[in-house]
Amino acid sequence: MDYELLENGNVKIGQKAPNFEAITTYGEIKLSDYKGKWLVFFSHPGDFTPVCTTEMIAFSKSYPFFEQLNTKLLGLSIDSNSSHLAWMYDIYYKTGIKIPFPIVADRSGEIARKYGMIVNDISNTETVRNVFVIDDKGIVRTILIYPLNIGRFIPEIIRIVQALQVSDCNKASTPANWVPNQPVILPMPKTYQQLEERINQINENKNGISWYLSFENVLPNCKKEELNDNNRENK
């Protein structure tokens, strides 16, 4: 049992995402249902609110891009399932856009508090705009927190998923402002012999500025089996 989680009511990068069961707009789910898939689990302050409505529309329009990345979306607020359904229908009626992913009805706030989505200094009832990127093994890889009045930038969330997947399957890192199809950063040498080899590679290929910072071109998208193998050797 994670006693730190019980005491502090939040999760951290690198830990197993706490499992839960919930009622959603697409029926009952468990977090463990997403095993083998990446998941963007996000909270919103409330249904029928302006910023949240724009986010739901934006997430829905971007849904095919997440699907291409083996990634599912899951929303949450402390509103009821009936409220979620009415809001979904209102969005569809006004815009023609269907919400293609589930929204958790967390009326008790149990899940929201477990994930640290409620900040008492801001509101005792509304969730702030959290985003948890959870990988296909159920590990929390990224946490983003936005204030109530600032909408999320969905392309950045997509870019984060892409960066995590590319870095995983290449055992590499991504530099500042990285976008898909750009080079990644090679792991630093661990021995002096490797250092000398890296310097020779840089001199030959012009792919870095020093032994501790060099780059490599990689495939823009990893194959599914590569995504599931974090111990893959460098190309």
Give a verbal description of the structure.
It is a single chain. The chain has 235 residues and is an alpha+beta fold. It folds into two domains: 3-152, Glutaredoxin (3-Layer(aba) Sandwich), CATH 3.40.30.10; 165-227, Antioxidant, Horf6, Chain A, domain2 (Antioxidant, Horf6, Chain A, domain 2), CATH 3.30.1020.10. It has seven helices and ten strands. The chain has a five-stranded mixed β-sheet with strand order 5-4-3-6-7, with helices on one face. Strands 8-10-9 form a three-stranded antiparallel β-sheet, with helices on one face. The longest helix has 19 residues, at 50-68. The model is unreliable at 1-8 and 224-235 (pLDDT under 50).
User: What's the shape?
Assistant: elongated
Give the proportion of residues in helices: 25-40%
What's the CATH first level of the largest domain?
Answer: Alpha Beta
Order of helices and strands: HEEEHEHEHEEHEHEEH
User: How many distinct folded domains?
Assistant: 2
- Low-confidence segments: 1-8, 224-235
Hey, roughly how much beta strand do the residues contain? 15-25%
Helix and strand layout, with pairings?
Elements: H1 3-8, E1 21-24, E2 27-30, E3 38-43, H2 50-68, E4 71-77, H3 81-95, E5 103-105, H4 110-114, E6 129-134, E7 140-146, H5 154-170, E8 184-185, H6 192-205, E9 208-210, E10 213-216, H7 224-227
Parallel strand pairs: 3-4, 4-5
Antiparallel strand pairs: 1-2, 3-6, 6-7, 8-10, 9-10
List keywords for this structure.
235 residues, alpha+beta, Glutaredoxin, Antioxidant, Horf6, Chain A, domain 2, 2 domains, three-stranded antiparallel beta sheet, 10 strands, disordered C terminus
